[in-house]
Amino acid sequence: MEGMETRVLMAVCILLGLVSVGVAAPGSATFYKPHQPSDCHRVKEPGPMVAAASDSLWSNGAICGKKFNVTCLGPPSTGEKFPCKGSVIVTVVDRCASPRCETTLELSRPAFNKIVNPKLVKIIIDYKMV
Ligand SMILES: *[C@@H]1O[C@H](CO)[C@@H](O)[C@H](O)[C@H]1NC(C)=O
């Protein structure tokens, strides 16, 4: 009986995961320097617009190679000059593992700088799988 409940719970989680695809979710972003080897073994570097996914998105690596539209919403605290410059499409090429990782997505410098004033180190984002 317990095994059955576990399976049902897993099915519900998978369903929720599927439902959330395509819907914008709130999160935060910092930047990092992409490196090799990455935790996404079969994904080729698609160019400079890349990101590392936190454990909340990692899904055992199923996220590797997926593309996200990341939109800057502003700095985490008020008082800083509104820095946002729109959205960027990034491909997940690595993992940003807890506890070191304290953000939803780590963006490459070119991707981070495209959507925000580069003087900031952390921003609030909306992200959507595309
Ligand atoms: C990314 O999302 C933003 C905000 O929803 C939207 O304005 C923009 O058109 C999207 N870009 C792409 C390429 O889908």
From TrEMBL:
GO-annotated biological processes: systemic acquired resistance
Pfam family, one: DPBB_1
Keyword field: Signal
InterPro entries named among the record's database cross-references: EGC1/2 (IPR044206), Expansin/allergen_DPBB_dom (IPR007112), RlpA-like_DPBB (IPR009009), RlpA-like_sf (IPR036908)
First and last residue of the signal peptide: 1-24
Gene3D superfamilies reported for this sequence: RlpA-like domain
A Gene Ontology cellular-component term: apoplast
Bilayer-spanning residue ranges: none
SUPFAM superfamilies per the UniProt record, alphabetical: Barwin-like endoglucanases
Keyword Signal part of the UniProt annotation: yes
Occurrences of domain Expansin-like EG45 (ranges): 27-130
Record's protein name: Expansin-like EG45 domain-containing protein
